[in-house]
Each structure stands twice: as structure tokens, then as C-alpha cells.
Amino acid sequence: MANVTETQAPAYVAPRKGLLSRVNSRAVVMTLYLLFLLLPIYWLLNMSLKTNAEILGDFTLWPKDLTLANYATILSDPAWYMGYVNSLTYVVLNTVISLSVALPAAYAFSRYRFLGDKHLFFWLLTNRMAPPAVFALPFFQLYSSVGLFDTHIAVALAHCLFNVPLAVWILEGFMRGVPKEIDETAYIDGYSFGSFFVKIFMPLIASGIGVAAFFCFMFSWVELLLSRTLTTVDAKPIAAIMTRTQGASGIDWGVLAAAGILTIVPGALVIYFVRNYIAKGFALGRV
Amino acid sequence: MNKTTNQKAWFLVLPVLVLVAFSAVIPLMTVVNYSVQDTFGNNQFFWAGLEWFEEMLASQRMWDALGRQLMFSGIILAIEVPLGIFVALNMPKGGFWASFCLVMMSLPLLIPWNVVGTIWQIFGRVDIGLLGYVLDRIGVNYNYTQDTVAAWITIVVMDVWHWTSLVALLAYAGLKSIPDAFYQAAKIDQASRWKVFRYIELPKMMGVLMIAVLLRFMDSFMIYTEPFVVTGGGPGNATTLLSIDLVKMALGQFDLGPAAAFSIMYFLVILLISWVFYTVMTNLDNRGS
Predict the structure, then answer these.
(1) CB-nearest partner of A37 from B90, B105, B243
(2) Using 50, 70 and 90 to split pLDDT, how confident is the model at A2?
(3) B-chain residues near A115 (CB < 8 A)
(4) What is the 8-class DSSP label of residue A15?
(5) A139 part of contact set with chain B, CB < 8 Å
(6) Of A137, A164, A165, the CB nearest to B259
(7) For residue range A246-279, what is the model confidence (pLDDT) as tens digits?
(8) How many structural domains comprise chain B?
(9) Which residues span the domain enclosing B80?
(10) Domain A76-282 has what CATH class?
(11) Residue ranges per structural domain of chain A
């Protein structure tokens, strides 16, 4: 063959003549797809920077008179910004609880065989898959009867339903990649289980813990049905407050859009750091 | 990895067991309890046996909701899976643009579900939304609050927008694990692009693709917030999917018995799919090790 060197490259780069059109068609597909993804988000951002008069008055593709008033409304009104505080409170609580119980359990699943391990692992999965709609009413009654209704901890515990199994599965996926010899060597060196786990093992799976934390945070952040059912005033999440923008003069579209944009910010801030693990996290540590 | 048998590992699992039992078993038992009892108020309950189950199985309402649900899940799978694979095949293979695409594609996945609903509710409006406005201008009669077809198209496109990236990201992860040697061999054999896809890329992606399909089926099967925000289940009951119907029944009308029976049958379906999912996952694990 004349072009032996060409075959070193993956199939899609060669032959040379088709290279330009190939790369271009790939770029075109990706551009179109990303455009499709970003256009609705751009539209929300666009609206959040407009006055209500402009939103309803003339149809403009970008804000004619740029205003930050909508954001100022949210950030200065406790009824609004407390929603973010509430959401963040129960989300962080949930992430901490989920991770701290999931870490030892994931270690047990990845290292040991014990009575009923497979059943337990499967049962956890069914809870990750459980429809929140089934649990909404029982949760409401359960947390009302123990006096936790409308508290952050109630929502945090309720979200453990799907986040603990998620964290266990993700962490187990990362832990199985760590060779068992490390554990054995550490025990021979005289480490107790606790000090080995904290000092040696946790740094080894630091990225796994980060990914699990990210996914717990995210799934708790995006969930609304349970958090709305379990709260009325004191722990009401931002997502539920958003449904109340309907005032006497109709819906305040600008503020609604600004509130929506602000809910995207936490995810967007950290997404870059976990970009290579998103598939792994969604696939529960597999892939 | 060969695991050692150690029953003391139970102590490590115990916190998870207690916590999840508290948030899953107790509520589920409440549901079971309601499903076999009837009440006339005043917290007085009577044994009703399997009455509610019989009533629900005979009720047209549940079968309609199930039909709509299966149609919804079917449509979005038929669109998202091929589209996701197509996008994954066109992803940059590395460097800055790969990272850029990964971050941009992940954005919709991280948006709270009701905000996803709000985005599309606004986007599709004829007066202030880009999509609705453009469609209206080019003469398409589009009104998702009145017209069943428009409502369906809106929630399907919304779900495609929201979740196709997940299929694409998983497929991309599967593609990246294929060694270059496979492509070189295909090139020596002068395999066509289609054959490379059919005999190299697709088989290698099969494992992750199964996960993607099951995840999408599962999550679409219990979807609630997004279509609820956009259409509220309407027009009429046209977009009332299973979860929407269940919440309406349980929290709206407080029909505890029927809602509980409904919940249990719903949960059994989920259990069945979870089992399939688990089998696929463990097969994947065993093949990997």
C-alpha cells in the first residue's frame, strides 16, 4: 500500500481529499446541535435582561435597553433570595448525608462478599429508579407525623431516597478500580481500618468522591415534586417560589426569567471540572 | 476483582440500610396499607381487600394514562437514541473543542426540571417566545395550550432537548474506548463507513447504549415536572402521563385507596425494569473485569 503512514491515523481522518469535507460536516452537525441546545437558554437569558415592557411590547432578539432590574428584584427581596438559601441548605445537607453513609457502604460492596450483598445492591438501585410521584403523599404524611414538615432536613432526608443509592453505585464504580493490594499492604503496615480509609483510601478515590458529590448535589437541586410537597414557607425551594410570579398585573416574565437563569448558575459553575465524568456519573459509575 | 467473604461488612452497610429503609420502606408500607383499605373520613379505615386493585385495573383512566406514557417513552427513545449516537459520532475526538462540546451539551442536564418546563413554556409562546413567534410568522398554527398535537410536539421536543445529550455523552464514552487498531484493521479491509459503524462502533457501544436506553426509559416513565409546567396535563387530558395522573389523584383529589393501588402497580413495573437494568449492569461489570 502506498499510503502506509495514513493508516496510522483513525479511519475518519483519511483519505486526504475527503478530510476537509468530513471535518466540516462534523463541525456543521455539532454547531447545529449546540445551537438547538443553547437557543432556548439564550432566550431565557435574553428575557431576563429586558424590561417587562420590552418583553411584551416589541419582539427583539437581544435586549434593546439592557437592564439588571430583574436580578436586583430577586437579590434584594427576601421572599425571593431565601428560596435560593433554602434550596442550597437542603441540597448541601443531602449531599453531606448521602456521601457520609455511602462511602463505607460502597467500600463494603466493592471489597467484600457478605450475606445478601447482591440483593441489597439491587434494592438500592430500585430506589434510585423509584418514581417520586409514588412517594410524595407518604412522605408528606411521614414527615408531618414526626414534626419535620417544612424543614430543610425533611427535604434532605427525602432526597436520600434516590441520592444515597446513586452515591453508593457511583462510589462503588470508582472503588473497584483501586487494586486490593493497597488495602492489604496498609493493614500489614499497621493501619487501622479508620485511618487507612481516611488517610490512604479516600485520597485515592478523590475524583470519585467529587463526582458523587456533584451528582448528589445536582439531582437534589433539580428535583421539585418532593421538595415542593414537603415545604410550605420556611424551607420552600426557589423552584417552587418561581411558580408564584403571577401578580395582579399578570406574570412578571422578566423576574421569572432571571430566577430561572440564577438556578442554572450553580451547575454551570462546576460543570467544567466534572466534564469527563458526566457519562460515568449518569451511568451510576459504570462506563 | 475477587472479593473475600466477610460478614462484618454488614456494619459498613448498616447506615445506608437504616436511612434508605426510613425513606423508602416506611412510605412504601403506608402505600400498601392504603391500597387495601377504604375510609369514610375521620381516620376510620376498613379492610377493602383487593377492591382498589380491581377498580384500577378496570378503570379506563389508568389505561389511558399508561397508553400515553408508553407512547411518550416510545417516541422519545426513537428520537433520542439515534440522534444521540449521531451526535456522539460527530463529536470532536479531543482537545479544546471536545471539552467545549462536553460542557455545552451538559448544560441542559443540570437545569432544574421545572425551569426546563418554564424555558419551553416561554420559548413556545406565540407572543413572547422565539419558537412560537417564528412558527406563527411563517404561518404555522401552533398553540400548545389548545392543540393536542402541538402540546405533544412541545413536550417531545422539550425532552429531546433536555436528555439527548445524556445518550450522546454515554455513546461518546463508549466510542472513546475503541482502540485505534480496530479502525486501522477496518481501513486495511477497506470497510465502508457504514460497516465500520455496524461491525466495530455499534457492538463496542452496545453496553453503554443499553444503559442509556434503560435510563432514558426509566426517567421518561416517571417524568412529572417538565410536562406539568408546560401543559399541566392538558389540553384536556392529552398530556396527562402516569405520574401527573397519580399526583392528581393522590394530592389533588385525595383518593388514597385508588392512588395507592395505582402506585403499587406503577412500582412493580419499575421493579421489573430495574431488574433488567441490574442484569445489564452486572453483565457489563463481569465483562470488564
Answers:
(1) B105
(2) very low
(3) 7, 10
(4) S
(5) yes
(6) A137
(7) 555 567 888 889 999 999 998 888 888 888 888 8
(8) 1
(9) 61-288
(10) mainly alpha
(11) 5-48, 76-282
